[in-house]
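As noted in the main text, all predictions were made from sequence alone. Below is one such record, for Glycolipid 2-alpha-mannosyltransferase.
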Amino acid sequence: MAGSQRYIRYIVFAVVALVLLYFIGSSSTVPSASWPAYHDSTPNTPKPNPPVVAGEKEATPATTPNDKTLPAATIPGERMNATFVTLARNSDVWEIAKSIRQVEDRFNRKFNYDWVFLNDDDFNDEFKRVTTSLVSGTTKYGKIPKEHWSFPEWIDQDKAARVREEMKEKKIIYGDSVSYRHMCRYESGFFFRHPLMLDYEWYWRVEPSVELYCDINYDTFKFMADNKKKYSFTLSLYEYVETIPTLWAATKNFTTHFPQHVVKDNSMKFLSDDGGETYNKCHFWSNFEIGNLNWLRSDAYIDFFTSLDHAGGFFYERWGDAPVHSIAAGLMLAKDEIHFFNDIAYYHVPFTHCPTGEQYRLDHKCSCNPKDNFDWNGYSCTSRFYEMNNMDKPAGYEKEQ
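Prediction:
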């Protein structure tokens, strides 16, 4: 009997012990391990909610991507009568698409300015679809009149052909190209006269395959107008001597016949080291320009271009639109009407303008390497522009020489 009682007590103790162990385990305050959840990459696969730990609030579900297209964050205020302008062909569509995206992301999504595309042929549907989808403003497409993209009647075709062949043998860049010469002549004297451009007062020239490295948070067109600027640049350099051997002689011929077009306090010191006797070959690189179209349409500029055009140097040599624009601005604009955009970080093969000044680059999310900056290179003319205008060079420029 005593043995049976002991046996029953052992069973009771065992049951009680098991019950206690169960309650101790279930009420433990030791947190469970938190493991990273595995997410199935299969599209639209529902994700199970993570288990809720006892004593904690249910976790807020993760957000899902917004499938709505959000409007661009535009900067309020009046807009100038301005447009971007690009000379391109249908084959340039993907290279100009890159440029447009650069300009839109860094600047135009905030301002929504128009964009004019010009071509010596008709633009195809693909070019129009792609560019229209990228531009926040209105896109316009124009065909260049044949008389603006051809040899004028006074050009000796045989002589021009011989020049091209000679330049080819000398390996002068674009020396044998007919289309490049038409382009330089068109950009020098006609783009601002196209019917689509007549609607505007200001232009920003953009070419295929350029890059902008910093955010631009103000209206550059309004800045130009408010500060009475008419022409601007980001890069300057020396022109190839072989392409413009008689350009300065043609310029001096113009100033002799039209002295009224040469303004006081001009930028001759940027163009010449001897008071205008010779040309030092410095010019503003015109693949980037923000400028005033009414100045280009003025009697002074039209007389200058017409004089050069009849001299024949666009075809008998290989005059570029960059030195043509630069000489015109240097002689026909007061020096304080020309602006250097240090804050617009710009690249066009093979040169880079990266703003001098680390704090500016940080504040404006710049992605350029300051070591690539061309401004203070010996082949740049930007130092000359600073010296002519008695401007202090940006702090830190010595490190970039």
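The two ends are 108 Å apart (CA to CA). Confidence is low (pLDDT under 50) at residues 19-58. These features were considered when defining construct boundaries for the mutagenesis experiments described in Section 2.9.
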